[in-house]
Amino acid sequence: AQSVTQPDIHITVSEGASLELRCNYSYGATPYLFWYVQSPGQGLQLLLKYFSGDTLVQGIKGFEAEFKRSQSSFNLRKPSVHWSDAAEYFCAVGPSGGYNKLIFGAGTRLAVHP
Amino acid sequence: GAGVSQSPRYKVAKRGQDVALRCDPISGHVSLFWYQQALGQGPEFLTYFQNEAQLDKSGLPSDRFFAERPEGSVSTLKIQRTQQEDSAVYLCASSLGPGTTSGANVLTFGAGSRLTVL
User: Fold this and answer.
1) Is the confidence at residue B81, as pLDDT, over 90?
2) What value does the mean pLDDT take over residues A92-99?
3) Were B92 and a residue from A7, A84, B23, B35 both cysteine, which residue would form a disulfide, CB within 3.0 to 4.6 Å?
4) A5–chain B nearest CA distance, Å
5) Interface test with B, best of A8, A101, A109 (most B CBs within 10 A)
6) Residue of chain A minimizing CA distance to B43
């Protein structure tokens, strides 16, 4: 079955600390991979995506993610968190061809302490 | 337009009422998706349009849910005889189209329509 697992429901970090949000997936073939962020009352904003090539991808707002095929993981990282990063983060997978029917994880809610 | 626009942003319905949610995708986007996001959950796929054709409706939870995109641009999601379990945020997303190019497969989401059924 196709699925996305985000093991951490809530994470709290101090401002300036580093961050890693975990994402594991189960998919029949090598998928396209995405991280989206959702602030309260807002839609989903794309942070970054992996289609092919270099397994370390850079995104907006200083985020990066690394695709590890052997571990079926696509973890999101940021070296220094800002208070404005507090939001909910969703990992998603989709097919590498055809229309992009995304499967989302349940999300990780990030809180940032000053 | 510059982004995906959804209306209304908030809708309160009494159980048994019909509701209609509207989505204006980015101009020129061929693909249009509807997702349902329950409280505390990730979005779940409802249905997909390529232009005016509804190619995938496998995620619609019951025959009370109906979606259309008659001219290949604006789409409407209709829920008949609403139930409390229909309470959720309904997200619309669009993309350039199906394919394997990086731009074609990036979904842009609207802010969503929050439906509360009393």
Assistant:
1) yes
2) 85
3) B23
4) 11
5) A101
6) A104
- For residue A81, count CB atoms less than 10 angstroms from its CB and return exposed for 0-12, middle for 13-18, buried for 19 or more: buried
A68: tokens are: 């590890």
For residue A42, list chain B residues with Cβ-Cβ distance below 8 A: 111
Q: What is the pLDDT of residues A14-50, one digit of tens each?
A: 999 999 999 999 998 888 999 999 998 888 999 999 9
Mean pLDDT of A2-25: 96
- Residue B91, token pair as written in the block: 């997200």
Q: Count of CB atoms within 10 A of residue B107's CB?
A: 26
pLDDT digits (tens, 9 = 90+) for B20-32: 999 999 999 999 9
E strand segments, A6-107? 10-14, 19-21, 24-26, 32-38, 44-50, 56-58, 64-68, 73-78, 87-94, 103-104
pLDDT of B2 reads 79
Are B112 and A43 an interchain contact pair (Cβ–Cβ within 8 Å)? yes
How far apart (Å, rounded) are the C-alpha atoms in residues A47 and B33?
Answer: 19
